[in-house]
User: What shape does this take?
Amino acid sequence: MEIRLKVWHGSINLEVWYHDQVALICGKRQGYLGSYLPQLQHYFGLDETTSVWLETDYGDSWPLAWHIPIGTLYDSYGELSADHQWRLRLQTGELPSTLLPLMYGPDYHKNLREYLFAQLKQACMVVNGSTKAVMQLSTHNSDQIWRAILATDWNDYWSVINQVLVPTTTKVPVKVYRGTQVSLKVVNGGNLVGNVLDEGAIVQGISLPPTMTMAEVWFHFKGVDGFIHVVDHLQPLKLLSPEPDPNNVD
Assistant: This one.
């Protein structure tokens, strides 16, 4: 419980620039840039219909995905300034082709909610063998999960999600990131980290012990979407189908 709680409250200081204005945000590792974009629009006086995104603000700037956990983005591209801020820049206009398109225009909360519940359904299929637990969520419980994610409310989130995803599993859903490439796979929960992940692979900002089982990693370190998010700086990855086969277990 203590590890999960620390992971849940992990944060990164974001320094967001728009022209000569700056906003400081305590970005939650488990959170998403898409959840902060509406308040940045408001803070910088932009119309809510304006499409915006965030980029790294050093070296070769890189558009940052609105639908990938902030902690995963930082582990992939992050570089802290001297005052321990991750410096980003807000951009406006047509979204770069490298970013996931917005199904509902610049309604970032609606886009993010739809995306997260689709991912949660996918994780549920892997872990439970069925999407039934997600599909049968009441509107009240679905809203509670969403509000808890936005507010980083531990109790409200876990009181519902524990009814959706079983606490122990023999199959573990994993996303592995290398730059813009994402590999989705299902691994056996009994496999050891050292036998599944490359040395130096990072989960939630840390390099995991090679003797830890993947089921333990999933229990302690999974994201709010039910996946383990792994950043691999070592090996190039083949871009795979976004639909992992729950019967194909490594």
